[in-house]
Amino acid sequence: MKSSMGKWFSPVILIVLLLLLVALPAYVPSEYTVILITNILMYVVLTLSWAIFSGPTGYISLAPAAFFGVGVYASAILSSDLPLPIVAPIGGAASFVLAYLVGSLTLRLRGMYFTMFTFGLVELVRNSLHWWEVNITGTVGRLIIAADNTTVFYAMVATFLAVLFASYLIRRSKFGLALRSIGESEEAAAHSGVNVNRVKVVMFAVSAFFMGATGATMSMRWTYIDPTLAFSIQYSFMPVLMAIFGGMGHLYAPVTGATIFSLLEEFLTTKFPYYYMLLFGLTMLVVILFMPYGLEGVIEKWRKKIKTGLRDGHETT
Amino acid sequence: MKLLEVAGLNKHFGGLAACTNVDFHVEQGEILGLIGPNGAGKTTIFNLISGALTPDSGAIAFKGRDIAGLKPHEITRMGIGRTFQSVKIFSKMSVFEHVLLGHHFGKAKPLKKKEAKEEAEGVLEFVELLKMKDSRAMDLILANQKRLEVARALATEPELLLLDEVMAGLNPTEVAQAMELAKRIRERGITILMIEHVMKAIMSICDRIIVLHHGEKIAEGVPENISKNKTVIEVYLGE
């Protein structure tokens, strides 16, 4: 499918991007830019990890906030004793376990029912934790030993690389193939020998791992957390909207979608603090109406046009 | 040798008896036809054998091992492949990927990536779809989609292949080609159990035929006897 140009083109872009990212704190004077880019990276990672499972299978999960929050709390409990590079994977592992358990129970549900359940899961975890904190530990919030902005930034770059690499490997592997077949017809996939439930549960858990690691990392920028902050439902909705906005067919799509969308969010919330939600909604409406495959759909159309244009001088569609 | 043996099979959906005390067996190497009017319970039997449904009671033995109640993927890996009455292709996946999936997951021993690719091409060549290997499944004509389902099942290296109306909706030329394909599959040493409504086809390629009506087996035998059987003519051909 890939052209010979595309084969070296995308790695080159990736490396240039990475070098720019790694060098960023050194040549950008303002803390603000570093924080902004860290935030963008957070959404990129959440969107990419959401797309690992929900992209090919079509199971729309609204659980990212639950897994993100679990990571945040792992960090709240552990960050006083352990350094960030250890806390982040532990946060991820905790989310992996939660997703594995929940997935085993709920991935039989299909369509809207699954989506509703995952939405409820966020509330369930948040309220249980709230109850626990009030009744057992006798507090609502917790303090986190914070890391400085540059450290968090580099940790997010590392997480981004990890999730990008994992997505790439999964897409190329037989499990990527199995996920896509599950999205098309679970019955036919099962009768082709795919252990449908196992593949779904494991991949759901893998995607949760990166969300948990992100939560653990990002919480180090906050000094104070409580269940409402950690399990904010925006961490569930944003990745879904960003994935729809960007598209999910190619790896670059969720990355581009999340980047542009979070820049848009930043711009709208600062320029139009009272109307930004309205403007957001309008943007989404326009995207869904006119770009059913997201940005990716538009980009791929252009690419095709350029390719056929180069090949035979006229369009063939 | 009996490859598959079904004894006292029962399945009810609420008050509807889809399958009542059905006994039959499939000989190694034969083509066995399963016919009957609509709603006779033919596809239910396929679903029970392939693990999509669990029987209420009764035994299904494949190569002497009881497989009733096993999961579909386990039964596939043991060597039973199937196609679907209404095609269930992965519409946005390529023809090649369909077969690759079966090769990766459906075999008792999974293959290495490179071997799987080579074998997948072999299967596509066998069902004459190799030229279309990069096409999306949804872009194929119905006859080729049905072939693709057969290819996907063959990729799991079945010993027993369940074909559910592979000829329905095809034109006479395509029916002839499908019959030819079924014969070639049998020549490969694969046993076939097929549901079919195209009488000409079933009478000419099946070694034996089983007739179902209202979930019960009403006749069994070689095609010549079935076509003369009075009960069969009454319930099936509607006189």
Description:
The complex is a heterodimer of chains A (317) and B (239). Chain A is mainly α. Chain A has one domain (20-247). Helices cover 79% and strands 1% of the residues of chain A. Chain A has a two-stranded antiparallel sheet. Chain A is globular and about 70 Å long. Helices cover 38% and strands 26% of the residues of chain B. A 6-stranded mixed sheet of chain B has the order 6-7-8-3-9-10, with helices on both faces. Chain B has a 4-stranded antiparallel sheet with strand order 2-1-4-5, with helices on one face. In chain B, β4 (57-62) and β5 form a beta hairpin. The longest helix of chain B has 16 residues, at 172-187.
Q: Tally the helices of chain A: what do you get?
A: 14
The structural class of chain A is mainly alpha
Radius of gyration of chain A: 20 Å
Number of domains of chain A: 1
Characterize the quaternary organization of these chains: heterodimer
- Which percent range fits the helix content of chain A? over 70%
Question: What portion of residues of chain B is helical?
Answer: 25-40%
Q: What's the count of strands of chain A?
A: 2
Largest sheet strand order of chain A: 1-2
Strand sequence of the main sheet of chain B, in spatial order?
Answer: 6-7-8-3-9-10
Label this structure with key terms.
heterodimer; A: 317 residues; mainly alpha; two-stranded antiparallel ribbon; 14 helices; globular; disordered N terminus; B: 239 residues; alpha/beta; six-stranded mixed β-sheet; four-stranded antiparallel β-sheet; 9 helices; 10 strands; 38% helix
Compose a concise summary of this entry.
The complex is a heterodimer of chains A (317) and B (239). With 317 residues, chain A is mainly alpha-helical. Chain A is built from 14 helices and 2 strands.
